[in-house]
Design goal:
The structure is a single chain. By secondary structure, this protein is α+β, with helices and mostly antiparallel strands. The chain contains eight helices and 13 strands. A seven-stranded mixed beta sheet has the order 8-10-7-11-9-12-13, with helices on both faces. The two termini are 23 Å apart. The model has no long low-confidence stretch (mean pLDDT 91). Pfam families: AIRS (PF00586), AIRS_C (PF02769).
């Protein structure tokens, strides 16, 4: 990349044509996308809109790259709110000197993940900054989806008796990024769990009329997601340590480095809450798609008593408070 690629002239037009639009295939070259879908016209349906920025280091890691995580992260933010993701935008901040080959791999990864998720990347932007002003590539994505009529997922709907379920193992993304940085001289083959969860959420929403809410456990991990839900619902959530799906490799890395896997980032893991009578239906629906085959019950909701909180029943029979993450265990994780 050179600064000329961001100058608005022929070099920029060639870059956009050869690297971006040839892959994403937008319907026009205008500065806006003009969108229509039968789902938008459904009576009672609502639009959902989200945006996020991605600055992960390194930009390529086992199990994914910054492009894949940008698509998955935005799709998942829509999906856990009950929306069917439809369209994405993608804006790139590219450092001078970045290899075009790297950019092509990232764009191809985004297209492949968008196809898997059933969404289209319909508009975007590119900017090139001088050496040292960025770290290879930063991506900002926005997403639009449609929430069907009658669907209202909200943490405030969670109530005592409800059951917490996760779809996948915990901490894989944070562990994969940490190992990929090579700063700790760790030798571990741990791919990120980076995955789109739209199909999983659609299956659960169809099977479970009592689906209360869902959160993807990204930065701050499962612990932060549970605390956010407990606070908004005004309830107590108790999880059981012996039910938490964590790989031995992730546990070992955390023990060595003094980290807690409950706070490690995930990019393909969510936690959702359903009424007890719908637990079996939820598990079956989640396990019917690849991203949910590891679905397990991890806890239950109780009256708040002394206030909203998250606790964990330990392997030794005691209980400990699981607080919201303070600060950040690992920077540049997504």
């Amino acid at each position: 990349m050179t600064l000329a690629h961001g100058g608005g002239g022929k070099a920029m037009r060639d870059l956009i044509g050869e690297v971006f639009t040839s892959v994403f295939e937008p319907e026009s070259s205008e500065d806006q996308a003009r969108l229509m879908s039968d789902a938008v016209r459904e009576p009672g349906a609502r639009l959902a809109f989200t945006t996020d920025s991605f600055v992960v280091d390194p930009v390529e890691f086992p199990g994914g790259d910054i492009g894949k995580i940008a698509v998955c992260g935005t799709v998942n933010d829509l999906a856990v709110g009950g929306a069917t993701p439809l369209w994405l935008s993608a804006a790139f901040i590219i450092e001078e000197g970045t290899e075009i080959a790297l950019l092509r791999r990232i764009v191809a990864s985004m297209k492949a993940e968008a196809d898997r998720a059933g969404v289209r990347i319909v508009t975007g932007d590119t900017k090139v900054v001088g050496r040292g002003s960025a770290d290879k590539v930063f991506i900002t994505t926005s997403g639009i989806g449609v929430i069907p009529a009658g669907r209202d997922l909200c943490a405030a709907h969670v109530q005592p008796g409800d059951v917490a379920i996760v779809n996948h193992v915990l901490g894989d993304h944070g562990a994969a990024i940490l190992a990929a940085r090579g700063e700790m001289a760790l030798s571990a083959d741990m791919p990120s769990d980076c995955a789109g969860l739209g199909h999983l959420m659609a299956a659960v929403a169809q099977a479970c009329p009592t689906l209360r809410c869902a959160r993807d456990a990204t930065r701050g991990g499962l612990a932060s997601a549970l605390n956010e839900i407990a606070d908004e619902a005004g309830v107590a959530v108790e999880i059981a340590e012996d039910t938490l799906p964590i790989r031995a490799e992730v546990k070992g890395m955390c023990e060595i480095l003094g980290l807690d896997p409950l706070y490690l980032a995930n990019e393909g893991t969510l936690v959702l809450f359903v009424a007890p009578e719908d637990v079996d239906a939820a598990l079956a629906a989640m396990r019917s798609v690849p991203e949910g085959q590891g679905a397990v019950v991890i806890g239950r909701v109780h009256d708040s008593g002394s206030g909203p909180r998250v606790t964990m029943r330990t392997l030794f029979g005691g209980a400990r408070i699981v607080d919201m993450l303070v600060g950040e265990q690992l920077p540049r994780i997504c």
